[in-house]
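Human: I would love a firmer grasp of how sequence relates to backbone shape in proteins. Take your time, and here it is.
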Amino acid sequence: MRTKVLVSFPTPPKFPYLHKKVVFVSWRILADRRYEIEPMIPTKAPFENNLHHILNDFMTSDCTFWLSVDADNPPIGKPLDLVEEDLDLVGYPTPVWHFDPESPVPGDRPFYWNAYDYVPEEDAYAEHDPKDGLQRVDAIGTGCFLVHRRVFEHPEMRKAPFQRTYYDDGTVKKGNDLAFSERVRRCGFSIYAHYGYPCSHYVELDINEAAAGFRNSHVKVSTER
């Protein structure tokens, strides 16, 4: 009997959208005969609400794994390969742009990969190293992840696991991805990232800002010919 995998492509309701590369990924996944795929394109808002509705559908199904792929975050290669690893939670590392032209940090690289190690003295997260193969990490981004059903069979993981956390004044303390990762670890599960299975990430970006970011990082940009 083939393992059943729920595959979701969450997208906003007002303008439902999947990047064409995500559509191509969906075709590859549906053509993967190793597993029985249950696809869905949920369109609820806000994002955490969408994830929680997907989770409810996942737990009322008989699927063993849940693969989530954001509308702009297509995994490269065959993401279902990682089903065979039987991990609690694994992220597919994604590059994230983070240069702030208003307060640049000299020499800072203007992007990072969204798998992290916890820095307890700062109650914050740093980009994980090394970026090689399968790595145990403390947190991942939720742009593309694979999670086993057993994680959500823990009763604490059914209590709004993707809900972001807030300071007393109502501003965000931890986003939904870091808050989710912390809940997963508190419940005794392990988190991984696999750098052999990275993602692309399509965002709107000002080329002037990109140029400033790389100038600030002292990276030489090659001349176009």
